[in-house]
Design brief:
203 residues, mainly alpha, 2 domains, 0% strand, repeat
């Protein structure tokens, strides 16, 4: 019976998380909260379930509930990524930076998703110095060649008004596509370098 209840709870969480289009409806938020209240009472504390619940709250933009879940269990890299993404999504860059530091203090290794969230946070905060440190860390891990990573680094430097850094990253790209060009042009546009925007556009 215990195992049966565990399976039913697991299926319930997966079902609700899968309803991405409807997850912002209040009824789905309440359903998710009810299921997690059962999980938190000891029926199941498997990390994968916790991560699914965090994904659900991410879809609902429910930061307070997500933080409650996050702080009630020992997080892994996926838990950190989920909660950092939510903070970045809701424009709480300082908390994202704080979580990034805590993640490393816990001895966890940042992955692509982690770096994407922290770069977005640095860009929103115009935290150029922190952004450079993160970029250096990304380069050391060899993730700087990833397409989405390069685009996000360029975007971060653009938002920090560090256009020379943005352009250096762009120039080092082995392949430049629409996404990388858009990130570069966006940085110059945000900083009102209209002449450069036109030059790039008609290049």
């Amino acid at each position: 019976m215990y195992c049966f209840r565990k399976v039913k709870i697991y299926q319930g969480i997966l079902y609700i998380v899968s309803c991405n289009n409807a997850s912002k409806e209040k009824i789905w938020l309440l359903e998710g909260m009810c299921i997690f209240s059962i999980v938190s009472k000891g029926l199941d504390t498997v990390t994968v379930l916790v991560n699914h619940v965090l994904r659900f709250y991410f879809a609902c933009d429910s930061l307070l509930d997500a933080m409650q879940v996050f702080e009630s269990h020992k997080p892994n890299i996926y838990s950190y990524n989920a909660i950092m993404s939510l903070h970045a999504k809701l424009a709480d860059g300082n908390k994202t930076l704080e979580l990034f530091a805590k993640l490393q203090d816990d001895g966890l290794m940042p992955d692509i998703c982690t770096f994407l969230s922290i770069l977005n946070a640095c860009g929103k905060l115009s935290a150029a110095c922190k952004g450079r440190l993160v970029h250096h860390q990304i380069t050391e891990t060899g993730l700087d060649t990833h397409v989405s990573m390069s685009k996000t680094v360029i975007d971060m430097y653009g938002k920090c008004a560090c256009l020379s850094d943005s352009h250096k990253v762009f120039d080092r790209l082995s392949t430049r596509n629409v996404v990388s060009w858009a990130a570069l042009i966006s940085g110059y546009s945000q900083n009102e370098y209209v002449e450069y925007v036109l030059e790039f556009f008609f290049f």
